[in-house]
Amino acid sequence: MPINPGIEISQEALVISCPVVLLVEGRDEVNFFGALFNHMNPEATIKFIESFYSRSLQCIVKNMSSGVNVEVRDVRGKDNLRYELPAFLNDPNFSLVRSYVIVRDADANASDALSSVQKLLRDHRQPCPTNHACFASSDNNTLTVGVYIMPGDPTGMLEDLCLRSVEDHPIMPHVRSFMEQVQQTMGKEAPKNRSKATVQAFLSGMRNTVSSLGVAAQRRYWYFDNGVFGNLRSFLEQLAREHTIVDIIEQADDITENH
For 176-195, what is the mean pLDDT? Predict the structure, then answer.
């Protein structure tokens, strides 16, 4: 069933089909970025593809305001990135790629998360950004690599960023009160990941409840116009601005049609 009316889902092998690629942790992130790109450019055409073999999810966003086609790819967890990155680099269509970005959560320590990504890039002799939300280019300027550590703070994850966007929502005081009572009542048995649990508590109060952050993004339950998304949107806009060359877009269209 479609995640959202008008958004197609099909089962195909996941092959590179765009000159700009985002490597993200999981399905929620794929759905989240698909919704965010669509919000940034409502005229974009979005197609979700689920691989029959790997059960990973891919999102193709065509015709953004910059004219750039973007692929968002699920690497099935940050720990799996060390396997998925070399597979991505060895994809037969990797020569199509002009830029790719690795997006992962800070979790307990953003500096450690960044260092882990940087080491992986260096190990595979890839351009390596010096900091979060930055880009680095190859010596011949044919490839650009970016890194974004969610939520853009010393600790946290995508869930924290989304929750900040709805801090002023009328039900949030009740959500916060509920989570405090859960903590007091359950003690050591309280949810291990409070941010994920808080997202679930918030979503349970929606008229049409959904079970995941990513589908909530498709339903526009997160306020993408909120300033908390400003840095992330600026990063994505910078990524798009660097890739407005017509021949790159035409090449991506040709590859997409062949798959």
Answer: 97
